[in-house]
Amino acid sequence: MVRTFLSKADYTIIGTSQDKKNVSDFSIIILTSGLLNTREHLIEICQLLKPAEIILLERNAALYNADLLVSKNSSVRVIKFADSASAGIMLNIAIQEAMSRYVLVIDSGFSDISHPKGRVEFPNDVAVVSFSRTFWGEEIPSVFAPWFEKKRLKLLPIPDAVPGDITIQLPSYSGIYNRDVFERIGGFDEAIEKPYWQRLEFCLRAYMWGYRIVYEPSIVVEVDSEPGIEDMTPYESYYRFFLKTLAVKIENNVASLPFLSFLLSALRANVSWGYALRQYKEIKLWIYKNRKNIIYSAEAVCDMWN
Fold it and tell me: Are residues 192 and 249 in the same domain?
C-alpha cells in the first residue's frame, strides 16, 4: 500500500494497525539505520514497555523479510521508504500514522530502554527528551542552551540538568513527541536536508509558536554508540533555517521577514542569488500565513535561558 499524507514522499506500510480501543497511550517508532542488535531483539525490548504499537522505519535497501517479521508480531508495523528519504521525512509520516497521542522515537541503535511508571503526559509541549547513555555508562548530553558569539547562535550543553529543564535542541531525533502539537506546528521541515539544522529549526519554531521541549530523565535510553559529528556547515540548510527563525522580526505582535535578512544570510551561507531569492519569497509567504501562530522572535526565545 503506497500512500501520501502531508509529506511528498511515497511509502509502503507492511502490517495493519490494531483496534484503537484497549491500547496503551504511546507508540514506539524506531529509526533502524545503524542497528547492531537484530530487529527481533529490539522488538522484545520495546514490548516490555507495553506500547500500543511498534513501527520500524526502513529504507528499501534493508534486506530482510518484513512480512515475516510482522506476521510474528501483531503489534509491529514496518514503513518502507526510498533510500533517499531523510529521517525528518520518515518521522513526519510515521508520527501521523501512529495511533497514539504520544510517540516515543528512538533514533538508530539501542540496547535498552526504561520508562517511568505511570504516564508521561505533556499536553502543552511538543516533545520530551530522555536521559541517554552509552551501553558502557557514559552520559550523552540531552539538554542545550543557546548563546550568541559574534552574533552567531551557539549551543551549550547543560550538565546536571533536572526534570522539567527546557532544551533548545534535540540531541538526536529521539524523544517522546506529542503528535497533536507536532502536527499543529508542521513537523520537521523536509526542505532542510541537514539533520542538525532540521532539528534546530523544528525546536526554535516550536518555541516561537509558544510550545516547549522539556527534559525527563526518568526515561532512559541506552544506545550502542556515541553520536557522530554532525554537519553544521552554513550552506543551503542553514540559509532556510535562518530565514524561518533568526531572521523573523515581530512588530506590533505581527511576524515578518525583512528583505535585508535575504541579503546578509545569502552571503554568509554562500548560496546562489537565485536560490536565495526563491527561498526568501517562499518563506516570507509562509511567515505571512502563520503570522498569528508565531508569538515570539528567536531572540526572545533565546532570552528564556538568561
Answer: no
